[in-house]
Design goal:
three-stranded antiparallel β-sheet
Length: 191
């Protein structure tokens, strides 16, 4: 079993990747169409900035923060609190997506100087990487449905390399370096 910190490492991160001219940075935002799951602490952090976030919303979004989240909690041990909430769907998309498919939370973070990911929920930042049963792996939610999040065997580069920013966010720089070493050893052993 491969492990870094508290995470088991799914070897799909080494074995698969994106093809040429295809990366998560070509995002079409369809992954957010049904809302996203988040830890209740993520929800509270967003609500602390509700008035500022509203300034970055357009007419396709609701500025009524009571409609932003489904407050029912589901048990999910992959979330820090052990529970998950979700964002609500408004006009067939996550409550925070504007008409251009951009996240109002992320826009606010960037424009305010806090940083694009400062208050964005963990799993929104991590996607298409996810934590499933304690394992760091690829989230296949949009596999074969969108070019931006479909992995292939004949990859341009591995998920470890093409999702570097997401993995550094999750693991930190030091553990990401360990992941690169683990990938090199895994690849050497496979040859």
């Amino acid at each position: 079993m491969l492990k870094i910190g508290k995470y088991e490492i799914d070897t799909v991160l080494f074995e698969k990747g994106f093809g040429n001219n295809c990366t998560p940075y070509d995002c079409d935002s369809t992954c957010c169409a049904s809302g996203v799951f988040l830890d209740p602490a993520d929800m509270e952090r967003v609500l602390l900035h509700k008035n500022e976030i509203k300034n970055f919303m357009d007419e396709t979004q609701t500025k009524d923060e009571s409609l932003w989240f489904d407050v029912k909690k589901e048990i999910d041990n992959d979330f820090p609190s052990g529970f998950a909430n979700s964002t609500n769907v408004v006009n067939n998309k996550c409550a925070f997506l504007n008409r251009e498919g951009k996240c109002s939370i992320q826009i606010y973070g960037k424009e305010s100087g806090l940083g694009s990911w400062a208050i964005k929920p963990f799993f929104c930042i991590a996607f298409p990487i996810t934590v499933d049963g304690g394992a760091l792996t690829f989230d296949d939610y949009r596999q074969d449905k969108t070019k931006c999040c479909t992995i292939v065997q004949e990859k341009n580069q591995s998920l470890v390399k093409s999702c570097k920013d997401e993995l550094v966010f999750i693991l930190g720089e030091n553990d990401y370096s360990k992941l690169l070493e683990m990938e090199a050893q895994y690849t050497k052993n496979k040859l």
